[in-house]
C-alpha cells in the first residue's frame, strides 16, 4: 500500500487462485500492454501488471545510493503531509530544504551600470563586464524548496550537517530551513519531496462528479489510448480546429512541446507513453538527441534512452557487469557523461555508436517509477475526458480558474478562436499570463467543438469557485468574473441563502462587495433587473 507502481517484470496474475506468469523476454515494456488472457487453472481473466523497474535504481546494488522518494499530494493537503512527516520522524528531525538565491548576470550588470551612473564614474565596457562577473552568482537571499524536507537520523543532530535559519531571515514565516543549499548536503541526509500537485485534486473531483472510481479504469482501454495520437474518438465538430491529438488538458501530455512529441513518435502502447514522459522531463534527452534519432530512423522510440533505468537494463542485457552498468547510469543521469574506460567497455560489448553519443548529451534523466506514476494518472484523466467529457471540462476549468477569462469565453467560439490566433501571432513575445490563457482557451475551443457550451454566470446558482454541470452545459463560478475574489464570492453565497437581494444597494450592504465587483456583475447581466434606489449617486 505504498505505491500503485508495480516494479516487477511484466506478468499475469490471477486475482482468484494467485496463478502467475512472468514475461521476461523483453517484448513488453509494461504488463499493461500484454494481450488479454484467462487463467489456465480457474478460467478467471488474468490481471496484467508490472513495469520492469529494477530495485537497484532506488537503493543501488549495495545500498550505496540515497533513495529518490517523491510523494505527490493535492496542493491543499501538502501542509498536512509536511506536518505528519514531523510526527513520523520526531520533532527537531525534519527541516525544510533551504535554497540560495543568487544575483543573475543581467541583474549584476544593472547594479554595476546604476552604481556608475549614481557616482558619475566614466569607465569602459570591459571594466563594467569585469565588475559584473564579480557580482554574478553572489548570494542575494535564501528561500525554501517547494516540497523538499530533510530528515535527520534519530541519533544525529542537524547542526552536525548544517546551520538552520528562517528563509530570508523572516522569523514570522514559521518555517525553519537548512542554511546550506540542499544540493550541498545531498547524499548525506535523506531528502523527501512532498509536493503539491493538481492531479490528485482533479481525480477526486472527477470521481465526485461521475460517481466512477478512478481505480476501476481499465489501463489498457484502446479508445483512450487513441486520443494520444488522434482526435477522432473525441468526435470534434469543427473544421478549423488545429490540434491533431486529443490530449489538451491532460496533465503531462497537454503542452505544445509534448503534443509535438506525440506526433513525432505516434505511441501505441502504455510503455511508449512512459518513455515519452521520461523524454519530456529529462534535460538533453529529447531535443537534439532522441528526437533526431527517431526522425532519422536511426532508432525507434522503444530503443532510445528515455529514463535512467533504461541505461542500466540495456547495458546488463548487452553483457556489461551489473555494478558497472549501475555506475554508468548514475553518471549519465547526472550529466557527467562517460569515462574513457566505460566507453571502451561499451564498444567491446557491441553497444552502438548512436547510443554512446546519446549518453554524452544527457544532462538530467527522470526515473522510470516517477514516469509510470504520472502516466497512470494522466491515462485515467484521459479516460474521463473521453467517456465523461462534461465532467472533465468542469474539473479542468475549476483547477484553472485563475487563467479562465470569462470576458472572452462568454462571447462564444469565434471570439475564442480569434483570441487564440492573436496570442499565437505574438510568438515568443507572449507573457507567462498570456501563455496560461492560451492553454485554457485551446481547451475551451475543443469543448465548444464537442458540443458543450458555457452558460452565463448566475448570481443565485453559480458556485463560488467551482464549475458545475447544468443542462449538459457548464455554469461558471462567481470567482471567474474579473475582480471577484474568493472572499466576495463566498460572501455572495452566504447571503443569497438568506433570501433574494432586493436592490443593488441591498446586495452591496449585505455582502460588503466593492463597486468594481458590482460593475462586473452588471456588465455580465448577473444583476439585470435588480433596481437601484439611488442609481445616480451610486455610480
Q: Which structural category do the helix and sheet elements fall into?
A: alpha+beta
Helix fraction by DSSP (H/I, runs of at least 4): 40-55%
* Silhouette: globular
Strand content: 5-15%
Report the average pLDDT across residues: 90
List unreliable stretches of 5+ residues: none
Trace the largest sheet across and list its strands.
Answer: 4-9-6-5
Q: Tell me the number of strands.
A: 11
Any overview of this molecule?
With 539 residues, the chain is α+β, with helices and mostly antiparallel strands. The protein has helices spanning 56-59, 78-89, 105-118, 125-135, 198-210, 222-226, 256-265, 270-281, 286-295, 308-317, 322-333, 340-348, 353-361, 368-387, 389-399, 406-409, 413-425, 432-449, 486-496, 504-511, 515-523, 535-538; strands at 11-13, 20-22, 47-49, 69-74, 94-102, 139-151, 164-165, 177-178, 190-197, 468-470, 473-475. The protein is 42% helix and 10% strand. A hairpin with a 6-residue loop joins strand 1 (11-13) and strand 2 (20-22). 34% of the residues are buried. The mean pLDDT is 90.
Amino acid at each position: 500500500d505504498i505505491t500503485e507502481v508495480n516494479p516487477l517484470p511484466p506478468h499475469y496474475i490471477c486475482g482468484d487462485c494467485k496463478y502467475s506468469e512472468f514475461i521476461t523476454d523483453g517484448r513488453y515494456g509494461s504488463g499493461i500492454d500484454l494481450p488479454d488472457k484467462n487463467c489456465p487453472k480457474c478460467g478467471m481473466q488474468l490481471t496484467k501488471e508490472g513495469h520492469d523497474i529494477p530495485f537497484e535504481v532506488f537503493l543501488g546494488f549495495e545500498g550505496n545510493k540515497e533513495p529518490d522518494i517523491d510523494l505527490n499530494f493535492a496542493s491543499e493537503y501538502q501542509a498536512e503531509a509536511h506536518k505528519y512527516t514531523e510526527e513520523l520522524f520526531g520533532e527537531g528531525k525534519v527541516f525544510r530544504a533551504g535554497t540560495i538565491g543568487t544575483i543573475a548576470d543581467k541583474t549584476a550588470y544593472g547594479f554595476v551600470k546604476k552604481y556608475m551612473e549614481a557616482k558619475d564614474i566614466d569607465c569602459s565596457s570591459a571594466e563594467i563586464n569585469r565588475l559584473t562577473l564579480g557580482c554574478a552568482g553572489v548570494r542575494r537571499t535564501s528561500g525554501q524548496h517547494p516540497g523538499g524536507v530533510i530528515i535527520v537520523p534519530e541519533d544525529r543532530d542537524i547542526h552536525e550537517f548544517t546551520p538552520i535559519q528562517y528563509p530570508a531571515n523572516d522569523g514570522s514565516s514559521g518555517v525553519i530551513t537548512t542554511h546550506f543549499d540542499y544540493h550541498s548536503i545531498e547524499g548525506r541526509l535523506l531528502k523527501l519531496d512532498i509536493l503539491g500537485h493538481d492531479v490528485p485534486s482533479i481525480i477526486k473531483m472527477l470521481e465526485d462528479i461521475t460517481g466512477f472510481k478512478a481505480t476501476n479504469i481499465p489501463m489498457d482501454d484502446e479508445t483512450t489510448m487513441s486520443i494520444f495520437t488522434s482526435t477522432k474518438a473525441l468526435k470534434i465538430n469543427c473544421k478549423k480546429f488545429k490540434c491533431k491529438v486529443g490530449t489538451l488538458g491532460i496533465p503531462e501530455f497537454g503542452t505544445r512541446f509534448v503534443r509535438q512529441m506525440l506526433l513525432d513518435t505516434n505511441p501505441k502502447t502504455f510503455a511508449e507513453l512512459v518513455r515519452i514522459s521520461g523524454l519530456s522531463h529529462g534535460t538533453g534527452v529529447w531535443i537534439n538527441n532522441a528526437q533526431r534519432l527517431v526522425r532519422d530512423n536511426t532508432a525507434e522510440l522503444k530503443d532510445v534512452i528515455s529514463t535512467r533505468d533504461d541505461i542500466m537494463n540495456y547495458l546488463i542485457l548487452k553483457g556489461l557487469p551489473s555494478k558497472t552498468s549501475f555506475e554508468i547510469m548514475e553518471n549519465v543521469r547526472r550529466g557527467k557523461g562517460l569515462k574513457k574506460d566505460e566507453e571502451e567497455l561499451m564498444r567491446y560489448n557491441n553497444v552502438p555508436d548512436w547510443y554512446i553519443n546519446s549518453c554524452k548529451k544527457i544532462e538530467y534523466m527522470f526515473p522510470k517509477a516517477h514516469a509510470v506514476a504520472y502516466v497512470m494518472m494522466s491515462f485515467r484523466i484521459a479516460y474521463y475526458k473521453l467517456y465523461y467529457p462534461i465532467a472533465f471540462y468542469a474539473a479542468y476549468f475549476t483547477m484553472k480558474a485563475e487563467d479562465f477569462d470569462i470576458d472572452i469565453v462568454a462571447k462564444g467560439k469565434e471570439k475564442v478562436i480569434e483570441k487564440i490566433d492573436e496570442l499565437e501571432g505574438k510568438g515568443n513575445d507572449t507573457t507567462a499570463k498570456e501563455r496560461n490563457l492560451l492553454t485554457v482557451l485551446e481547451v475551451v475551443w475543443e469543448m465548444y467543438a464537442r458540443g458543450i457550451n458555457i452558460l452565463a454566470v448566475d448570481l443565485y446558482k453559480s458556485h463560488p469557485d467551482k464549475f458545475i454541470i447544468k443542462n449538459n452545459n457548464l455554469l461558471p463560478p462567481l470567482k471567474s468574473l474579473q475582480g471577484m475574489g474568493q472572499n466576495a464570492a463566498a460572501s455572495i453565497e452566504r447571503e443569497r441563502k438568506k433570501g433574494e437581494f432586493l436592490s443593488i444597494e441591498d446586495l452591496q450592504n449585505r455582502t460588503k462587495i466593492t463597486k468594481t465587483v458590482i460593475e462586473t456583475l452588471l456588465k455580465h447581466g448577473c444583476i439585470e433587473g435588480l433596481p437601484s434606489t439611488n442609481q445616480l449617486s451610486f455610480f
